[in-house]
Specification:
By secondary structure, this protein is an all-alpha fold. The chain has one domain. Helices cover 68% and strands 1% of the residues. The protein is built from 17 helices and 2 strands. The protein has a two-stranded antiparallel ribbon. The protein is globular, with a radius of gyration of 19 Å.
């Protein structure tokens, strides 16, 4: 139920504010509009501080999350991030944005969500899984410190200070960056969106790490992420017998429901399709790259960009770097994804 509520709120905020990493970077770099990127930065800062406050007070054991495992592959995380970022540009939005737009009636997003789910399952458990596992085993390393708090503890700083010091430093930089932009300060809707999304990350940790804490039937400690949950959601829809709804599946359902209800109430619901076969091909390719890259990087622009970063995990910084590189390659430079020209038949 907590996952459903988190998803509902995210769906509402995502539709009303246009919250999306790709859209924010494109608006900042191509159009000179930095408001959305400040919204994302504010969400980052709030997520980091709120999550580390929960961990410092022993409300949530972040060490049980996938982001703080001692063994990880830097090349896999970086490459996965690059693939996801570039795919995000091809598909014109990340997995969470596709879910929000699907709730608004965007049928292109239905194709993106479905292909993303299939590609993710293929990488997790299907045809691509053996190659992924082999590459991971060949390149993985065991780090002496998997997060900034652990790294500080090796220097003599322990307990809550080791968590709160880097959290406050990073959170302050991100929040100051957000509010230093005058147009952002004049956009209360964007400020509220950044604050709410950041708190939703902490709410997800609280739901799975505290409400879901059970020694006899433990729930994986997680928060908002969308690649694996979208794949799990598709699998549940097809093969629900004997399966149970987990936090991720409930969140995906909540995002769809929240966006749909908001679109209907605000009269934004509108059925939309592809402009041309090339448009569909580009979206399918981008969705496949997001599914594969998201699994390799252990998260998406939300799963690593917000949730992973909130744990201050060092691998998350690697994955986020890859996502930024992939997105930058898609938006700028020689590999830039150029706008599609509408075909004559589609134009008519």
């Amino acid at each position: 139920m907590a996952g459903l509520m988190v998803g509902l709120i995210y769906g509402v905020v995502g539709l009303l504010s246009g919250f999306c990493m790709m859209s924010s970077l494109r608006g900042w770099w191509a159009d000179g509009d930095g408001r959305l990127v400040r919204t994302y930065a504010l969400a980052m800062g709030v997520a980091v501080v709120a999550t580390q406050v929960l961990a410092a007070n022993a409300v949530v054991d972040l060490g049980r999350s996938i982001y703080l495992q001692p063994t990880f592959s830097v090349p896999m995380m970086l490459l996965g991030g690059v693939l996801f970022g570039y795919g995000m540009v091809l598909a014109n939005g990340c997995g969470s944005r596709a879910l929000v737009l699907l709730g608004r009636g965007n049928l292109r997003s239905f194709v993106v969500v479905t292909v993303l789910a299939i590609a993710a399952e293929m990488t997790l458990k299907g045809l691509i899984a053996p190659l992924r596992i082999a590459l991971m085993q060949a390149s993985q390393t065991t780090a002496m410190a998997a997060s900034l708090p652990v790294l500080l503890s090796t220097g003599g700083l322990h307990g809550a200070p080791a968590r709160l010091l880097p959290a406050l430093a990073l959170g302050s930089v991100l929040i100051v960056f957000a509010f230093a932009h005058a147009p952002f300060r004049r956009a209360p809707g964007q400020m509220l969106a950044g604050l709410v999304v950041g708190l939703l990350i902490a709410a997800g940790w609280f739901a799975t790490g505290y409400l879901g804490a059970d020694d006899f039937n433990p729930v994986p400690v997680a928060s908002l992420t969308f690649v694996a949950p979208i794949a799990d959601g598709l699998q549940y829809v097809m093969l629900s017998t004997g399966s149970t709804v987990n936090f991720g599946i409930a969140t995906v359902a909540g995002v769809l429901a929240g966006s749909l209800v908001t679109a209907l109430v605000t009269r934004r619901f509108k059925l939309e399709g592809f402009h041309s076969p090339n448009h569909m091909l580009r979206s399918v390719g981008g969705a496949a790259l997001m599914g594969i890259g998201g699994v390799m990087a252990l998260g998406c622009s939300v799963g690593q960009g917000l949730t992973g970063l909130s744990t201050l995990a060092l691998p998350s910084f690697v994955a986020i770097t890859g996502i930024f590189i992939g997105t930058a390659a898609g938006l700028r430079g020689a590999l830039r994804v150029r706008p599609l020209k509408m075909e004559p038949e589609a134009a008519r």
